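Summarise this fold before class:
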Amino acid sequence: MKKILSILGLILTFTVCNISFAKQPYVHGGLKYFDYGLESGDLQTINTSLVALGFSSSTSSTDNSGVGFEFGVGYDLNDNFAIEGSYVDLGTLEINTTTTGPAESIKTEIDGHSFAFAGVVKFGEPASHFYGRAGMHSWDLSAKVTTSLGSSSDALGDGTDPWFGVGYRHEWFRIGYDYYKMDDSDITSITGSIVYNF
């Protein structure tokens, strides 16, 4: 049901251009560099769980980053306010674990996507301005674990939470910082995107 509502919300964003007060539609898309916010305590939890399963020792590591993308549509309602709907690929967080007793190499890959909706406040001229975005996003995560015996994939979780971003647009290019809340955790990203006004 959440996915259906997210798709309906994206369609609604597309159709807002028919409302008489909508000034100008645009599309935007670009790459996102994620920081997943995983802490050393989170890795230690993985290691402790594996030792509890019977391994003699466990060591886990991650670069705590990944690359995804965002693509969406927006509508300038006036010079200072717009609304946007986006599809966000959340990239892939990779965690590598090495155990002893028995020796094993375990790779865990966590990836997902999100449908995000936001209001956008702009400060400056239409072609060059700072902006703030705030709204809600409906996210879905899955995990894939690979060992010497094979691999297994499973759903990890989903939900709907707030998100916000700040950034700067100059003509057709904008760069921004985004924060996504996900239950008791969060991820952040630096986003570089191209904006095309119709």
Summary: The radius of gyration is 20 Å. The first strand starts at residue 24 and ends at 35.
